[in-house]
Amino acid sequence: MMDQLAAESCLIGDILIEPKLLCDTRKVVAPEDFAGEITKTVYAAACALEDAGQPVDPVTIGQKAALQGSPNLTRTLAEMMELTPTAKNYLAHAQAVHRCGMSRRLRGVLSDGVDALDRGQDPETVCGTVQTRAQTIAASAASSGLVHGADALHDLMDFRGKLEDGQTTAMLSTGFPALDNVLGGGLGPGWMCVLAARPSVGKTSLALAIAENIAARGGAVLFNSLEETSLSLTAKRLGLDGYLQPTRLLNEAHLPDGEYDRMTRAAVRLAERKVYLTSERNMTVDRLKFLARQVEGLSLVVVDYLQLLAPTTGRSRYEQVSAISRELKLAALDLEAPLLVCCQLNREAEGQMPKLSDLRDSGAIEQDADNVLLLWAPDSPDGRPKLEQGQSCCRVQMLVAKNRRGPTGGKLNFSFYPQTGVFRM
Predict the structure, then answer these.
(1) What phi, psi does 143 have (nearest 5°)?
(2) What is the pLDDT of residues 129-179, one digit of tens each?
(3) Which residues, including other chains, have CB under 8 Å from residue 66's CB and lie 6 or more apart?
(4) Beta carbons within 10 angstroms of residue 149's beta carbon
(5) For residues 419 and 248, what is the distance between their CA atoms, to the nearest angstrom?
(6) pLDDT tens column, 376-385
(7) Residue 183, Cα to own-chain centre: how many angstroms?
(8) How many other C-beta atoms lie within 10 A of the C-beta of residue 21?
């Protein structure tokens, strides 16, 4: 394999001989692929000149580099041109530079992983971080960022063919037809759908109901709870499917025969569904992505809830939640699956109709989300579901506060059965 610095010098020589090759070269090589400071400076200067519509030649590159504090490069550029009497091998040089750059960055990621393990960090967390960074490197074969319209049309027609043949589905039904209609058919791949409410309004139960509806139709779901154990979530799953009270399943040693029969029948049904639970308390978005990739045929990821995810950057709470929100949206795109993200509302939303600005800790959530659905109980003074004497259900209303692919401002009414967690429309 060609020495990296030699390949970099040859590539610069190729560009100096045939400046028009720079456009194609940039589809393969990024400035960070260069290990040599001089070659990196020259390449970055050439790219800046092309972006500005200026000529790319030894004189302009030297001037551009000088503005950035580099020494006189006239002799160096001339030597690079002498290395390559012809530019016909530019692509081989470009690929060699890119491979070496990827190798160097990957070694850095692995080295950081070893250092993190030496500092005592959790191996699974380190594994998730290394995997995410490695995949970013693998996807970073510097592209021009342009997609020709003809290629985009080809991709669309290919998607349409798979859709017509039943090989793919455009949208994922929530199991609530009225909600699907509002969202334009359901949840789409790469979407981040935020389900927000004050505590004890039923957002976990509704998120779990949507997850179960998807799993009942053969979908694979990862449900991540940061405030409940898998035992508690499983009791809620049984409650939803068997119309049982989760608290009784967890606390009472003996159930009436009718309830016991419903529990066993529900358990048989749930055992056949591809629902995966995780209740790690120090969950990061990288770790969540790592776990999601272990789920074969992933259909949906549920996060309950956003503000409990562990931050990896940012000093203030606002900065931390903003970063988590953006990472979740990028995770949905990377996984090509919808993320249903539960979220807390500010105390100011207590007892009144919630609005977008009530999203807790960061306005970035509103920006990153494709959909924002707000829950409250309009018939209760404090906005939380309450049963009157003799009632088994109460009204919970969903407000469509943001809808990237449909109208906003709509209101959907659910009948909520707090004792079992069941939602009906």
Answers:
(1) -100, 155
(2) 888 788 777 766 545 456 667 777 777 787 777 777 776 667 889 999 999
(3) 72, 73
(4) 8
(5) 10
(6) 888 888 778 8
(7) 19
(8) 18
Rounded CA Rg of the chain? 28
Residue position matching structure tokens 């692919």: 405
Identity at 411, one-letter amino acid code: K
Sheet holding 298-304, edge to edge: 274-278, 220-225, 298-304, 339-344, 192-197, 371-376, 394-403, 411-417, 422-424
What is the rounded end-to-end Cα distance, in angstroms, of the chain? 65
Separation CA 80–CA 34 (nearest Å)? 15
Q: Are 192 and 335 in contact (CB under 8 A)?
A: no
SS (H, E, C) the chain: CCCHHHHHHHHHHHHHHCHHHHHHHCCCCCHHHCCCHHHHHHHHHHHHHHHCCCCCCHHHHHHHHHHCCCCCCHHHHHHHHHHCCCCCCHHHHHHHHHHHHHHHHHHHHHHHHHHHHHCCCCHHHHHHHHHHHHHHHHCCCCCCCCCCHHHHHHHHHHHHHHHHCCCCCCCECCCCHHHHHHCCCCECCCCEEEEEECCCCCHHHHHHHHHHHHHHCCCEEEEEECCCCHHHHHHHHHHHHHCCCHHHHHHCCCCCHHHHHHHHHHHHHHHCCEEEEECCCCCCHHHHHHHHCCCCCEEEEEEECHHHCCCCCCCCHHHHHHHHHHHHHHHHHHHCCCEEEEEEECHHHCCCCCCHHHECCCCHHHHHCCEEEEEECCCCCCCCCCCCCCCCCEEEEEEEEEECCCCCCCEEEEEEECCCCEEEC
Convert the pLDDT of each residue in 307-344 to its tens digit.
888 887 777 888 888 888 898 999 898 888 999 999 98
The angle that helices 90-118 and 123-138 make with each other, rounded to 10 degrees, is 170
pLDDT for residue 1: 46
Residue pointed to by tokens 């509704």: 206
CA distance 46 to 77: 12
Q: How far is CA 336 from CA 54, 188, 190, 354, 370, in A?
A: 40, 9, 5, 30, 14
Tokens (6 digits) for 89: 């091998």
CA distance 386 to 365: 29
189-200 residue pLDDT tens: 899 999 998 888
Amino acid at 423: F
Between strands 371-376 and 394-403, the pairing is: antiparallel
Calpha distance 332→204 (Å, rounded): 20
Is residue 382 within 8 Å of 358, Cβ to Cβ?
Answer: no
